[in-house]
Specification:
With about 230 residues, this protein is α/β, with parallel strands linked by helices. The chain has eight helices and ten strands. It is globular and about 45 Å long. The chain starts with a strand and ends with a helix.
Length: about 230
């Protein structure tokens, strides 16, 4: 049984039909990258999984349970973490308080930020008393991922974590995600535009075209020919 099974979902924004009978299966401890040109529905897919934009038709099944109509906070407590595009950290509170907000999603009642967070993200430790809005873009992105990890998720949804990030920090985020995956066996669904990053981090890929799945395979099948056909502008 897959950890996540998205079955023939149709998702709308108002009257706009964005996802068309889209299906996606993600196995436990897998890193799946969602690829596609701008506007094909990648972010909508993540929002459908987390419940911010629930599908009108089809089902979202997580660990064998139908969560299609479940509230976002209940999905978080079941173990689904989400880092949206643009990070959406709270700029007027401290790094530590941002991290503490992530604890709300935990089902074990822990009220202290785990030490492993600063082990994975050592650059955050000297910044715990700094307001989130004063961090650089790369620091904010690491804070957003760390906050999601504070909820102890089994499935982590990441929407373009390298967007607007300088290359050295992209490499650092790549290293961190690989380590988290290896040590915590975390399942990750990653929406990404940087092909090299996707290839280095992911095991499987799904390409979307106009709200539908156009191709899916293991990451070694993401050839230059496939990239030219589906991803080159």
């Amino acid at each position: 049984m897959p950890l996540l099974d998205v079955r023939d979902i149709d998702t709308f924004y108002g009257a706009s039909h964005v996802l068309h009978s889209l299906s996606l299966r993600v196995e436990q401890s897998e890193i799946e990258c969602i690829l596609g040109r701008n506007g094909v529905g990648k972010t909508t897919l993540l929002r459908s999984i987390i419940g911010l934009t629930p599908p009108r038709l089809g089902r979202v099944v997580y660990k064998g349970e139908d969560i299609t109509r479940m509230r976002v906070n209940k999905r978080a407590r079941l173990g689904i973490g989400y880092v949206p595009q643009g990070r959406e950290i709270f700029p007027d509170i401290t790094v530590m308080d941002n991290l503490r907000l992530g604890l709300v999603a935990r089902s074990d009642g822990m009220t202290r930020v785990p030490d492993e967070i600063f082990d994975f993200f050592p650059m955050l430790k000297p910044l715990v008393d700094r307001q989130g809005g004063l961090l650089s873009g790369g620091e904010q992105q690491q804070l957003a991922i760390a906050r999601a990890l504070c909820g102890n998720p089994e499935l982590l949804l990441l929407d373009e974590p390298t967007e607007g990030i300088q290359p050295s920090i992209v490499q650092e985020i790549e290293r961190i995600l690989k380590r988290i995956h290896q040590e915590k066996k975390l399942t990750i669904i990653l929406v990404e535009q940087k092909i090299d990053f996707a290839k280095n981090v992911s095991q499987e890929f799904t390409i979307m075209v106009k709200g539908r799945v156009a191709r899916e395979a293991d990451i070694h099948s993401l050839t230059d020919e496939v990239i030219r056909e589906y991803l080159t502008i």
